[in-house]
Amino acid sequence: MIYLLRHGETVWNTLGRFQGQQDSPLTGRGLEQADFVARLLLEEMTDDPHTVELHVSPLGRTRETAERVQRVLPLARREDARLMEVSVGSWDGLTMFEIDNEFPGVLDGSDAFDWYFRSPDGESFDAACARAKSWLADIEGPTVAISHGLFGRLLRGVYAGLSRREMLELPVPQDGFYRLCGGTFSLVSGSSVRAPSLQTQ
Length: 201
Fold this sequence. Notes:
Elements: E1 2-6, H1 11-15, H2 28-44, E2 53-56, H3 60-72, E3 77-79, H4 96-102, H5 125-137, E4 143-147, H6 149-160, H7 164-168, E5 177-181, E6 184-188
Parallel strand pairs: 1-4, 2-3, 2-4
Antiparallel strand pairs: 1-5, 5-6
Helix pairs in contact: 2-3, 5-6
């Protein structure tokens, strides 16, 4: 069983900046989301926490989220670079508007789901999927993983054998998590736990 979490909302999420392997801190709402998902995970997890491993991307936003989870669940944490977000190279930290201005024509014909892999010096789709396969191959028992939006899509897609397009169109919520089991995945988002407020910041 794998419980796959995404980090909470960050400052750059609110600005429409693709973070890639750069970083920005969680917002107040992002901290609320991390706390909510931690409590939701506590309610849903049937495994003994002492038998569950916590794997975390080493980027700051996932580490912040992990710290909130560990306040609720006593999981031993280890960082794994294979869970890092997909890098779009020199586009990391930019908005689509900025990319379109600085690299005219490169985004022509792309859409909200496939523009990431147009970067001339970013990580390729195949390389990112290879990272996901490598990480999945090493999982031997119940695991909580804290990763990112785009890489979380690829991880679920590789796990379930989806096509490239199906992977890229998967949702990436920050107020729930995915349970991966038996070659399929399902979203866990409803609970008696109070959901975080929906105000924008």
